[in-house]
Amino acid sequence: MEYKLFYALGSAAMGVRxxxxxxxxxxxxxxxxIAMDEPRPPEQLAINPNGWxxxxxWGDNGMHDNGMYDNAMYECxxxxxxxxxxxxxxxxxxxxxxxxxxxxxxxxxxFSNSVQNAFQLDYYPDRFADTPADEPSAQRRGIRRxxxxxxxxxxxxxxxxxxxxxxxxxxxxxLFMLTTWLRPSRGQPSTDEFPNVKRIADAVMARPSVxxxxxxxxxxxxxxx
Length: 225
Ligand SMILES: N[C@@H](CCC(=O)N[C@@H](CS)C(=O)NCC(=O)O)C(=O)O
Prior knowledge:
There is one protein chain. By secondary structure, the protein is of the alpha+beta class. It folds into 2 domains: about 90 residues, Glutaredoxin, CATH 3.40.30; about 120 residues, Glutathione S-transferase Yfyf (Class Pi), Chain A, domain 2 (Up-down Bundle), CATH 1.20.1050.10. The chain is about 50% helix and about 10% strand. The chain contains 9 helices and 4 strands. β1, α1 and β2 form a beta-alpha-beta unit. α1 runs parallel beside α3. It is globular and about 45 Å long. The protein starts with a strand and ends with a helix. The structure holds glutathione. The site of glutathione (GSH) has 12 residues, from α4.
């Protein structure tokens, strides 16, 4: 196998898996979990002590004295850049000297540090609030922050066909992945509030790679319609 991916349903590892499918690279999924009360595989924790997925491995994974591993990494946005650069033939990202490269990197990092952070405030309030009593406040702020940050993305997209204009890219896959985390039943916004985001998410969902990786999620959506 060219890649190994520590994986859990509903997690950011699903976006990485879609990218691997689009690339056509052989990969092995190693089942992990995002449940708070379940242990993580020791090999995953050795690479990412935070206990998050995705974690990606390739080649030989020798360990250095400082505990760093060769050919292993975590952080979904960084993995996205890494894979797209490593497989330019898949045409999932602008090269470093193409005009859309800035918007590509900017949007991936904004997704990672602003939109994902807003999700975290709602889903993991204990990481942001000093006491359990403060957690509802962190969650409320997270939900407001979701509206603020998705609005920025919706405005950025405007009438574009894809996030980067007329070219499909890994940013569109990332956008789709993040929309699957939205839960209006918790007070979070629905994609209906962001028509440009929704247009792209719907177009990404039609891709065979997404139909495969998100089959379960898509079936659930169809049941509730
Ligand atoms: N900044 C990290 C965040 C990854 C992350 O939050 N992963 C979640 C699933 S989407 C997870 O593993 N949660 C379990 C936990 O935080 O313990 C990234 O983008 O890769």
